[in-house]
Structure formats: structure tokens, C-alpha cells
Design a protein that fits this description.
By secondary structure, this protein is mainly beta. Helices cover 7% and strands 38% of the residues.
Length: 213
């Protein structure tokens, strides 16, 4: 009886001394913030089994996510919040993502790509063109203006308008960059307004022409 009890006790000790299971990720990590240069971006590690400590790997990525590079200058393996740099071509115009691991495991669980980091100031117009103000377009001609904005604006919208002497009126449905001249445009000036929005607000620019018959 005593020997059997000793064997049972030994079995319990061996089973209980096994290595603890590695933490498992239950919900993926996420990034939070305004995604504006200079303003905080925070990673939530998600839910895991157990009570692990976390390590983080910050990366900068191209807008399509095809190329990502380590961004250790933003934050080290303990950084849960970073502040993207404001220079154009540094963090403005890129996307961020973070790999999260638990208890120094070799496998990372990644966040989705962040929105594009925009400038903290209003967008600045760099160049515009594509419309010759001195050559009247004819009915059926396709107008193809362009506007280039600095600051990686979060959105850029377009509105075509017909303008008289004192005011301009939006043309219904004309919200794309290109526009084909119509008969209804004869006698008015045509104007396209481009509006870009970033972290510091919005800015607008326009081009104008007057169609001829």
C-alpha cells in the first residue's frame, strides 16, 4: 500500500513540473491614433492567454505595404506609443505597422497597416496645370488638369463649376479630375476646384478656362 502511494505521488510531481505553455494570441493587435505627424500613435497588443510581457517591432511601409523597414528610431521593443516625424519623405506619406510578440518568442503577430501619416499643417500646393487658359476648349474636348499637393493629404476632392460674372455653380456629378466639355458650358467659364485635407486642415486651388464653339 505504501509503495503504491509513493508511485502515485511521483507521477503527480512529474506531470506538474512540465514547462508552461507559450502565450497564444487570441485577438490581433491594433494601432490607434490620428495618424498625423507629431501626434501619438499607440499599439494595443490584443488579447493573449496567460499574463505575458510584450515586445514590439515598429516598421515604416510604403503606401501599398509592399516594402517595410525597421523603424527603431520611432521606438524600441518596449514602446507602445510613438510620435511620427514631420518631415516630408520621412514619416509623412508612409504607413506604420507593428509586430507584437509575448515573452520574447520568435514569432510576431502583426497589426494591419496604419492609414497614411499626414502632415500636421494644411496641405501645400506644389504644382498645378494641364489647362491652357488662353486656348478655348471645344465641345467634346477632354480637359485633364492636375494638382500636386505636399503633406500627404488624407483626401483630395474635385468639383467642376460653371461660372458667370459674380458666382460659380457646381456641375451635378462632375466630381472627377477629368471633364469633357458640353454644349451647356458654352457662354460660361469652367472652373475646377481641388480641395486637399490633412491633419492641419484643408486647402483649395483652382484652374479656369472658357469654352468656345
Amino acid at each position: 500500500m505504501i509503495r503504491g502511494a509513493a508511485v502515485s505521488l511521483l507521477t503527480l510531481v512529474v506531470v506538474g513540473s512540465g514547462a508552461a505553455a507559450s502565450p497564444r494570441n487570441l485577438t490581433p493587435p491594433k494601432l490607434y491614433g490620428e495618424f498625423v505627424a507629431g501626434r501619438p500613435v499607440t499599439v494595443d497588443p490584443g488579447r493573449w492567454t496567460g499574463t505575458p510581457t510584450f515586445q514590439y517591432l515598429w516598421e515604416r511601409c510604403t503606401t501599398d505595404g509592399s516594402i517595410c523597414k525597421l523603424a527603431s528610431d520611432l521606438g524600441d521593443e518596449h514602446a507602445t506609443t510613438v510620435h511620427p516625424h514631420g518631415q516630408q519623405g520621412y514619416d509623412v506619406g508612409v504607413r506604420l505597422k507593428v509586430g507584437v510578440t509575448a515573452d520574447h518568442a520568435v514569432t510576431f503577430v502583426w497589426t494591419a497597416l496604419s492609414p497614411v501619416i499626414t502632415a500636421a499643417a494644411r496641405p501645400q500646393l506644389q504644382t498645378k496645370g494641364g489647362i491652357d487658359p488662353y486656348t478655348p476648349p471645344r465641345i467634346g474636348m477632354l480637359l485633364q488638369p492636375y494638382f500636386n499637393w505636399a503633406g500627404a493629404p488624407r483626401s483630395v476632392t474635385y468639383r467642376w463649376q460653371r461660372c458667370g460674372v459674380t458666382r460659380c455653380v457646381d456641375i451635378p456629378g462632375a466630381t472627377k479630375l477629368d471633364y469633357r466639355v458640353r454644349a451647356a458650358d458654352i457662354g460660361s467659364r469652367l472652373r475646377i476646384v481641388s480641395t486637399a485635407a490633412a491633419g492641419g486642415g484643408s486647402a483649395s486651388a483652382s484652374e479656369t478656362t472658357k469654352p468656345g464653339r
